Structure formats: C-alpha cells, structure tokens
Amino acid sequence: MPLSNNVIESLRGRLIVSCQAYPGEPMRDPRTMARVALSAARGGAAAIRAQGLDDLRLIHQQVDLPVIGLWKDGDAPVYITPTLEHALAVAETGVEIVAIDGTAQERPDGRTVAEIISELHRRTGVLVMADCSTLDEGRAAADAGADLVGTTLAGYTPYTTKTEGPNLQLVEQLASALEVPVVCEGRVHTPAQARAAIDAGAFTVVVGTAITHPATITGWFAGALPRG
Questions:
Q1: Position 1 pLDDT exceeds 50
Q2: The domain that contains 120 carries what CATH number?
Q3: Potential cystine with 141: which of 66, 146, 179, 184 (Cβ 3.0-4.6 Å)?
Q4: Phi–psi pair at 153, nearest 5 degrees
Q5: What is the pairing mode between strands 127-131 and 148-150?
Q6: Where in the sequence is the signal peptide annotated (predicted)?
Q7: 3-state secondary structure the chain
Q8: What are residue 48's DSSP bridge partners?
C-alpha cells in the first residue's frame, strides 16, 4: 500500500487534534503548540492539524504523527492557505497533508481549487485536504482530486448558516455523495458529538477548541456560573 494510503487509513474512525492559537494569545508560540501537540498525541490523537510555518516545522520534527498543515494569512474571505504559494510553503515543512480553502470563493491569486490541488500533487506529491462549506463545494473538490474533504468552513462562509454543533447533515450528505474520506471539522465540542459525526459517516473527526484552547474552555465554564 502506498505511503499516502497508509496515512489516510491511519485516520479511519479516529481523532485529529487541531493545535492552533489566535494572534496575540499567550500560547501563540511554536514551542507551546508543539507541546500541546505532544500532549494530544499522548492522549490518543491519530494526527495533528496546525497552522503557521514555524509551528508546522517544529511539530513535524517532534511529534510522531501525521500532520495536516495550513497557513492562515490575510483578512480576505479566503485565508486558509489562500494561494498556491502558501500551499507549496506548507508542503515544504514536511507535513503529510496540506489543507486548503476548498470553497467557491475567489482566491487572492486567481487560481481555482482544481488548479491548486493539481499543482500541489504534481510538484510535491503531498496529500490535499479541501476545507469546504457546502455539498457542491465538496463534490467539486473531490472531482478536482482532493484526497480528503472537510466540513471545516460550514457556517463560516457568507452563504452558509452556522449550526450550534457540528454540521452533521452536511457530513451525511458528503459521505453519501463522495468516494474520498470526509472529515468532520467545526464546533465539535464533546465526545458525544465526535462519535455522532462518525455515526453520520465521517471518516475522521477534527477537534480543536474543546481540547486545545484554554481561553474558550474557561469562558464556557465561567459563563455557566451565576456571576459569569
């Protein structure tokens, strides 16, 4: 079995942990994110999703798990690995999978999702995960050669509605329509929701905030108390 197939198969029915910190936060440091990733690996994560070239290099060096890499840049609607140049730079960090924006929105470099996926495969051989927000986008990304399709941006594009938890309806639709693995990502806040995503047809589940973002988790608890 090719190495790329082994990487994908290692994710089947398992948890991917997203280790990211927002700009200006105390944890926004590659060494900190690498330690968070190491802790996630110890807890049973099958892979790590992370962003930023320095974070990706260090995590790839220190954590013995596949890494899904991305680069958040700019304030345009498309900011997750928004151009081919961003994607190539992410691939050069050594990650096994590059995540790109897979929506129908215009990219800063004018390239299509299909063009970026094709060039990434041709130049690097890296696997590509397309972060989508609708069924049509997922279909288009799969047709373009994406190796995995995620629900990452459901509720985060102007034309989609944010669900309270993960968009399980979209997971079901994608799983029924596509032959490539479907990744449930976005607002998975409990173990029960993660399991529900698998039951809905997800190949694997990404959890970030509920595991690796102390400020938000603290806010959930503080807000539940009378003086919150």
A1: no
A2: 3.20.20.70
A3: 146
A4: -100, 10
A5: parallel
A6: none
A7: CCHHHHHHHCCCCCEEEEECCCCCCCCCCHHHHHHHHHHHHHHCCCEEEEECHHHHHHHHHHCCCCEEEECECCCCCCCECCCHHHHHHHHCCCCCEEEEECCCCCCCCCCCHHHHHHHHHHHCCCEEEEECCCHHHHHHHHHCCCCEEECCCCCCCCCCCCCCCCCHHHHHHHHHHCCCCEEEECCCCCHHHHHHHHHCCCCEEEECHHHHCHHHHHHHHHHHCCCC
A8: 17, 67
Q: How far apart are CA 151 and CA 196, in angstroms?
A: 14
Residue 107's domain comprises 3-224
- 228 pLDDT exceeds 70? no
Question: Is the CB of residue 130 less than 8 Å from the CB of residue 100?
Answer: yes
pLDDT digits (tens, 9 = 90+) for 34-89: 999 999 999 999 999 999 999 999 999 999 999 999 999 999 999 999 999 999 99
Nearest-5° angle of CA 36, CA 67, CA 161?
85
